Amino acid sequence: MLREIREQLNCLAGRKPYTGEMLREIQRMNAIDWTYSCLHLGGSEITKEMVGNIIDGQFVVEATIEDHRLVERLEDTLKEGISLLEMDYDLDERVLERLGQKFFADGRTNWRRGNPLNLEYNFTPVYSKDIPEQIQELFRWLYSDDVSPEIAANPLLRAAYLHNRFLEISPCDDYCEEMACIIMHYYLMQKGYPPFVLRFSREEYRQAVVAYLKKNDISLFYSCLERSLYNKLEVVIQITAESEERH
Predict the structure, then answer these.
(1) Residue range 149-153: average pLDDT?
(2) Structure confidence at residue 135 (pLDDT)
(3) pLDDT tens-digit series, residues 193-237
(4) What's the whole-model pTM score?
(5) How many CB atoms lie within 10 A of CB 19?
(6) Bridge partners of 123?
(7) Which helix (H) or strand (E) covers residue 63, if one does?
(8) How far from each other are the two terminal CA atoms of the chain, in whole angstroms?
(9) Which residues touch 24 (CB under 8 Å, ≥6 apart)?
């Protein structure tokens, strides 16, 4: 499917530049996908439609006040990510800090201090004292050429490992799934891919993460990532084709 995804990107590249109306439609869709994907992986019950309504400036009575705040913070995180990408910033500790400052309500910059058992995935993350070194090593690996040929040739696979290795470190006391999703999307946007919704149920997501943490098996997570991105690009191809037909 990776070959088909690359063909989709080439198809879309040939349709640029988009009209102002089309560009705004795609940007709105990307904001919804970025926000909903992060919330969904974090266990939120908010729907994609509700996210879209909040992004459009509506107050959604079915959503909590905290839901509205999280959507707003994730929107700000996306804007910060786009700004950093425009300045060609690779993902590193400074970028992670700036993204975290936009996402966390208290603008925190400190790492987890305790060493709790993660009950969701039934594993103990790295010791708190090792977090800075582990995060530094993760970002070094992300842009390293010293990887297997399979990973070197496939940014989607590297992004899948990035997400799961971040959860393996679990550097934050909370919202680790959301931050893992944020940095995964940041890296993929750097490589030319749009934000998309990882189409996991909560249980499927848990099983995919556990498969990696317990067996170093990335296949469940990667398959969903690849399929979800393919579906997102198909939607963009469809709406840009309709735009071309109207013009």
Answers:
(1) 94
(2) 96
(3) 999 999 999 999 999 999 999 999 999 999 999 999 999 999 999
(4) 0.94
(5) 13
(6) 118
(7) none
(8) 31
(9) none
- The DSSP letter of residue 105 is T
- The residues near 44 (Cβ < 8 Å, ≥ 6 apart) are 67, 70
Residue among 220, 229, 160 nearest 193 (CA): 229
Q: Please tell me the distance from the alpha carbon of residue 188 to that of residue 206, in angstroms, as a whole number.
A: 22
Per-residue pLDDT averaged across 147-165, rounded? 96
The dihedrals phi and psi of 74, each to the nearest 5 degrees, come to: -70, -35
The answer to whether 135 and 180 are in contact (CB under 8 A) is no
Q: Which two tokens stand for residue 152?
A: 């070197």
Q: What DSSP string describes 183-243?
A: HHHHHHHHTTPPP------HHHHHHHHHHHHHH---HHHHHHHHHHHHHHHHHHHHHHHHH
